[in-house]
From TrEMBL:
Gene3D superfamilies reported in the protein's UniProt record: 2.60.40.3650, Neutral Protease Domain 2 (1.10.390.10)
Pfam families given in the database record: Peptidase_M61, Peptidase_M61_N
Peptidase M61 N-terminal domain sequence ranges: 29-206
SUPFAM superfamilies: Metalloproteases ('zincins'), catalytic domain
Domain named Peptidase M61 catalytic: residues: 303-393
InterPro entries reported in the protein's UniProt record: Peptidase_M4/M1_CTD_sf, Peptidase_M61_catalytic, Peptidase_M61_N
Protein name (record): Peptidase M61
């Protein structure tokens, strides 16, 4: 069987571009009609007022957070037209694949353009570097809408409220974490700014939804299957214990109160291929699946994606740097702390089941051994901070953040528990940092390591960072495992014959 998964992370908070006239008089008012798709193209209209600049540039993103290659969403735009307050066409100059320059911009009243979808049915026809979970698809009965591929922004005007009206066919339902009002033939979505808009995908389809209520958060599982069958109930029941375990693991301290799993499933009778593509957002995950109509296979693959992506409600949503807070969609700068955003998230993903009792110790150790072996395929001379700073140049090394990134956090966890006599680990460190910063206060990328050293209070943290996060020394995995009474032998992790009471005590604090 072919089994390929791509998992991404997206979190957008506010723009670092110049802010011109960020007054309340500027509101983006978009409208579109998904009943009127011609040649896979959807017409979008923007009404906007209050722009005061002589010259402005209207853009679609070149790249979005979590995708380390140019997607160039402007390539799907055609018939781009701008109208002044008298209803007359204005002159525009295309300045690249994604942007249009408009003079006399203070006269702009509206824009109109066509958007082509980027894929038809999600299947195993792969194009290198292209992530369909970041792009939109318009079908006869289902519409996967990623807002950054439909709706653009004026550079310098991204911190303004957005309203989107969607005319729709009768009987289809919009699944999203956006605030919305619904009527029989028209829905209206509201976002506090452009960043919140593009951070919330929308699935339009015949309703197939199931809710999961957890302490402090409501989770909706919304699905569409080309089979025509209902799959949300079976998936929701299967992942419910996982989400309950994750909430328990985090002491029910989640930074969001609403979350949506949007799942699109396509199957081709007779095919045994298994393919998935998942894109994480602040309050939702969009999951595309191509696999047989086998509920056990579907549930297990959704479980695998959900177990990692749901933890992203912590990082980078609740803890992130200015490089993410001030993300520039066309000329981004990258944070060096992917060891935290992805590495720590992946460590929490494999550590949570054994900590909460959902999984066995042996299953956890086997996963650690698999990652340790797979890590050998990647460049040992590339530090994880260098990879993080330059991800587009090192795309062939990126998967190592889920391997080395997870294992270095495992090592740090055991060291912290040893130094604190079992009272403090990386989860405590992350929660402590989240209480200080949170989703509305980014940290300084270049000084964050000093912050970590300060909040943990252990001298060994500085040496650990220098050697294994910013440096390229081999991870001390064998030493760490020995501290808790295990040994790494021929690719397998096994228990020592006679672990000491000290080793067993440290092990208990680590694995609960």
């Amino acid at each position: 069987m072919n089994r390929i998964f791509s998992t991404l992370v997206i979190i957008i908070c506010s723009s670092g571009l110049p802010s011109y006239s960020q007054g309340n008089d500027v509101i983006y008012q978009y409208e579109t009609n998904i009943e009127e798709v011609e040649d896979d193209k959807l017409q979008v209209k923007l009404t906007i007022g209050g722009l005061s600049e002589e010259t402005l540039t209207y853009c679609f993103p070149k790249i979005i957070p979590g995708i380390y290659g140019a997607m160039n969403f402007g390539q799907y735009i055609s018939s781009f037209q701008v109208y002044d307050k008298a209803g007359q066409l204005m002159e525009v100059q295309k300045t690249g694949e994604n942007c249009w320059e408009i003079t006399k911009a203070n006269q702009i009243a509206s824009l109109s353009y066509l958007v082509d979808d980027a894929w038809e049915k999600f299947d195993d026809t792969m194009e290198r570097g292209f992530y369909r979970s970041a792009a939109s698809s318009f079908g006869d009965s289902v519409y996967v809408i990623t807002p950054h591929s439909l709706f653009g922004y004026f550079r310098g005007y991204t911190d303004h409220a957005v309203e989107v009206k969607v005319r729709k066919k009768k009987g289809i339902y919009p699944a999203t974490s956006l605030t919305k009002t619904m009527a029989e033939k028209e829905d209206v979505f509201f976002a506090e700014d452009y960043h919140q808009l593009v951070d919330n995908p929308i699935l339009y389809a015949k309703p197939d939804t199931t809710s999961i209520e957890l302490p402090g958060i409501s989770v909706e599982v919304a699905c569409y299957s080309t089979s025509g069958g209902s799959i949300s109930g079976a998936i929701a029941e299967y992942i419910r214990p996982l989400l309950q375990g994750q909430a328990k693991y985090l002491d029910n301290q989640l930074p969001v109160d609403k979350y949506t799993f949007i799942i699109y499933h396509n199957f081709r009778p007779g095919s045994t291929s298994i393919l998935g593509d998942g894109l994480e957002h602040s309050n939702s995950t969009l999951i595309l699946l191509f696999m047989p109509l086998d509920m056990e296979v579907i549930r297990q693959n959704v479980y695998g994606i959900a177990s990692h992506e749901f933890f992203h409600t912590l990082m980078p949503l609740g803890l992130h740097s200015h490089e993410i807070e001030n993300y520039d969609y066309n000329e981004p700068e990258f944070s060096k702390h992917i060891w935290l955003y992805e590495g720590m998230t992946e460590y929490f993903t494999i550590h949570m089941p054994v900590w909460t009792g959902l999984g066995s110790v042996q299953e956890f150790l086997d996963e650690v051994a698999v990652k340790a072996d797979a890590m050998k395929e990647f460049d040992p001379e590339l530090s994880i901070t260098s990879l993080s700073r330059n991800p587009m140049e090192n795309q062939d090394q990126y998967y190592n953040v889920y391997l080395k990134g997870a294992l270095l956090n495992l090592c740090l966890d055991v060291y912290l528990r040893e130094w604190s006599k079992g009272k403090y680990g990386v989860k405590d460190m992350v929660m402590q940092l989240m209480r200080k910063y949170g989703k509305d206060q980014p940290f300084e990328d270049d000084t964050f390591f000093e912050e970590i050293i300060s909040v943990t209070g252990f001298d060994g943290v500085r040496e650990f960072i220098n050697k294994y996060i910013e440096g390229t020394e081999p991870l001390p995995l064998e030493d760490v495992l020995n501290k808790v009474g295990y040994t790494l032998n021929k690719g397998k992790i096994v228990e020592m014959d006679h672990p000491t009471p000290e080793q067993l005590k440290l092990r208990k604090s680590w694995l609960n």
